[in-house]
Amino acid sequence: MIRPTRTIFTTTVIGCLLIAVFAAMAIHWVPSGPAAAHDQLISSTPTASEELDASPDEVTLEYSAEVMTMGAELRLTDSAGKQYSVDEAKFEGTRVVAGISEDLPDAAYSLAWRVVSSDGHPISGVVPFTVGDAPKASAEDTSAESSAPSQSAQPASEGADNAPSFPSWVRPVLVAVIGMGLAFGIFAFVTRTRKQRHND
């Protein structure tokens, strides 16, 4: 006949091991951090597909958070693929500003940008606009002709933004649960074994 204490002990050990196993499986499926943490371009000057009467003096890109002050690239090209000079980018809070020192002739343009998000991931995109009497620019028309690091008008990280997001504390908690479950199971097993030997 199985003693009740032994049954309780066995059930407890098995329960702890199952908790550890399920926690380990959960860690495999939980991302290590928020998947939608990348910054995004929320506005620009000129705006996307804006039709300007005259050449702009500068371009401004505003993001959802302060991007890193390194690795920023701005490239301005027209519909024929000619590149125009853009001053070095300046960081003003959540905005990235760069002057245009030369007058842009009437044409369709694409401002291709690439910056490093505050979470360390690079993001990029294209802002199309036109100057003067020129056919209206669009992201689809200009992205393929641009020599920018990205060929999309959307941030390069957009695909990751659709993934489920989990708080950053979930993974450490699951690790702690695994450790506690294994430790308790081993401790209970060793204690029970020693007690049996002592009784024998």
TrEMBL record:
A Gene Ontology biological process term: response to copper ion
Glycosyltransferase listed as a keyword: no
Intracellular or extracellular location(s): Cell envelope
Transmembrane portions of the chain: 169-190
Domain CopC: 38-131
Keyword set, alphabetical order: Copper, Membrane, Metal-binding, Signal, Transmembrane, Transmembrane helix
Protein's recorded name: CopC domain-containing protein
Ranges of biased composition (kind: Low complexity): 140-158
GO CC list: cell envelope; periplasmic space; plasma membrane
